[in-house]
Amino acid sequence: MKQQVPTYKNHRFQISIVTHAIWLYFRFNLSLREIEEMMLERGVEVSYETIRRWRCLHGSLLTATIASQVTFTH
Predict the structure, then answer these.
(1) Cα–Cα distance, 3 to 63 (Å, whole number)
(2) Alpha-carbon span 34 to 6, nearest angstrom
(3) DSSP tag of 43
(4) 52 Cα distance to chain centroid
(5) How many domains does the chain have?
(6) Per its UniProt record, what InterPro entries does this chain match (predicted)?
(7) CA atoms within 13 A on the CB side of 46
(8) How far apart are CA 32 and CA 55, in angstroms?
């Protein structure tokens, strides 16, 4: 099965900002409001609702990509 490349067409923010916010959500189990505060500390003013939309649109594809790149060692 071929994976789709995420499209970030019509986004106000750069791809790196979108993927970083989604990565923070899944990697560290943070709330959307905590991510909003962390992004604000970095100078990116984005609402928690926008982060929630990014998570819904791109989250499953990003986690699948990360999971395919992870190698487990014993």
Answers:
(1) 12
(2) 25
(3) T
(4) 9
(5) 1
(6) IS_Transposase
(7) 26
(8) 10
Question: Letter for the amino acid at 22?
Answer: I
**pLDDT confidence band for 17 (50 / 70 / 90):** very high
* 1 within a domain of the structure (yes/no): no
Residue 56 CB neighbour total at 10 angstroms: 10
Q: How far apart are CA 1 and CA 33, in angstroms?
A: 35
List pLDDT tens digits, range 36-72: 999 999 999 999 999 999 999 888 887 777 777 776 6
CA–CA dist 23, 59 (Å, integer): 8
Which alpha helices (DSSP H) does the chain contain, by range?
Answer: 15-28, 32-41, 48-69
Instruction: Tell which residue, 33, 35, 22, has the closest CA to residue 63.
Output: 22
